[in-house]
Every structure is written in C-alpha cells, then in structure tokens.
Amino acid sequence: MSSSRSTEGDQNHTSVAMFVLLGLSREKAVQLIFFPIFLGVYLVTLIWNLGLIILIRMDSHLHTPMYFFLSFLSIIDICYSSSTNPRMLSDFLKEEKMISFIACATQYFVASWMCLTECCLLAAMAYDRYVAIGRPLQYSAIMAPGLCQKMVTGAYVSGFLSSLAETIPCFHLYYCGPNIIPNFFCDITQIISLSCSNPFISHMILFLVAFLIGFGSFLVILLSYGFIVAAILKIYSLKGSAKAFNTCASHLVVVAIFYGTGLSVYMHPSSSHSEKQDKVLSVFYVILIPMLNPVIYSLRNKETKEALKRVIKRATHLLQ
C-alpha cells in the first residue's frame, strides 16, 4: 500500500505515506544500460571533487581565497550529487521505485540546501574575482581569511534556512490521492502539484526564495562582472587584459552553465517542455554539473595543473 488514511477531516497529517518515482525510463533494458553510465558519472564526480579538495589542502600555493571557495564548492557538489545519485542508481535495479514521504522530504531538503548554497558561493567567488582584478593592491587586506570564512558560513546558513523554509510548508500540505512523481528525484514543483490542499503559500515561499537567493546572487555576480569589465578596459596592455580575464574565465563558465541550465529547468511554462525534455535538463542540472565544475576549474587553470605536478613530484620523491 502506498498510502495510509488519516481520520476524516484531519488534514494535519498526510494520507500519502509513499511516493512513486517514475525514473528516467520505464523499460528495464534501458535502466540496465543507464546503471553503469550513471554509476561512472557519480564515481567521477566524487573522485574529481575529492581530488580537488585534497590538492588544495596539500599545496600551499593554492591557499588563497579563490581556492578556499573552490574547495567548499567541491564539498557542495559532492553533497548535492549524493543526495540524488545513490537513490537513482538503486532504483535502476528495482521493479518498484518507491520513496517514503520522509525520505522524499529529506532528499529535497539536502538538494535544495546545496543548490541555494552554491548560488551564494558563486556570488562570493564573483566578488573575490572583482577585488583581485579591480583592487589588486588591497586584495590581501580585503579578502582576509576571516572575511572568507564568514562568506562561506553565510552561504551555508542562508542555503540551510531557505531550504528549510521551502521544505516544511511543502511537506505539510495535504496529500490525499496521486503519489506519482514523473522524475528520478523529489522535485518540489512536481510534488506540490500532487497536493489536495491550497499550495498558494508554498508557491509564494518558493518564489521568494528563488528571488532573494537565486536572483539576488545572480545580481551580485552581474554587478561584480560589470566592475570587472570596467577594470579590464582600463588595462592598456592587451596581454594584461587577457591575463586579467583568464583569472575569472573558469568561474564565468561555471556560472553560465549553472544558471543557464537552472533557468531552463524551472523558469519555463509547463507546456513548453515535454516530460522527456524536463528529465534531460534535470539530469544535466542535478547529475552532470557537480561533475563538470571541478573539471572546468582543473582543465582551464594552470595553477591547479602546476600544483598537481608538485604534489605528484613530492609523492614520487617520498616513495623513492
């Protein structure tokens, strides 16, 4: 049974005890093909992000504000990916893809917390790049370790409280009938649509969080890059301009992918995308971005490549 009935007229407790996740495909053969592919993606995500965290901690040349933020971005990517991937992988091997009401709420809370924290952290990283390019002589004084720690703490606390504000009202709605989620994870917009009670307050909270955290962070990023462009235009040397732009190129790519995909997933009319298109975009946003972030920073950054060479050289020397 997927539901347990509450007493008549009592809407303080949900009548739906389980949700059904339809997953990426209903065909067993396709699911068995997907399993090794997404297992590989998840393992690469863990290895890349953990590797980047260890590299930053081990190499003193990377003990700068930018890499301090980047190490916490990798922690976010690990947690974000782990909130959905293990469940999706296990569902590929199951006939019935059931998830309990509490597990669904927990999954969404963690995923939302990490996603909102990433918004704030990307804004902090944009400000860091502005100070590095626009005010290089004051960089060390402005981006002191204390400020960086406060910015990271603020990002995590803001994400936590915002996710809590979204999750509690949504999962306190009355769910009396349909319990099928047409996705591979607990997407709050699809969950709210299953509610038998008025979801107005939940929709308003979602809008406010998206506006304050999502759009607010994006506005900080846009302003920071506006000042960065203004600072670069004042550099008369072409080589100097190229070097200044290169210091924020990786961050710009990550921001473009993160916000571009996020807007495609959540900011479109419900009729403009098919269910399959929504799933493809969700896979990219939820599964692939956490894997791409460390790859983008590693491949586009000479400092990380040089740091890796130093660590390998040091390890080789110790083994000899």
UniProtKB/TrEMBL annotation:
Entry keywords, A to Z: Cell membrane, G-protein coupled receptor, Membrane, Olfaction, Receptor, Sensory transduction, Transducer, Transmembrane, Transmembrane helix
Pfam families, per database record: 7tm_4
Signal peptide: none
Membrane topology classification: Multi-pass membrane protein
Residue spans crossing the bilayer: 32-56, 62-80, 101-127, 204-233, 245-268, 280-299
Chief location category: membrane
SUPFAM superfamilies linked: Family A G protein-coupled receptor-like
Domain G-protein coupled receptors family 1 profile: 48-297
Compartment(s) of residence: Cell membrane; Membrane
Family that this chain belongs to: Belongs to the G-protein coupled receptor 1 family.
Summary of the function given for this chain in its UniProt record: Putative odorant or sperm cell receptor.
Listed PANTHER family: OLFACTORY RECEPTOR
Name of the protein described by the UniProt record: Olfactory receptor
Gene: LOC101402467
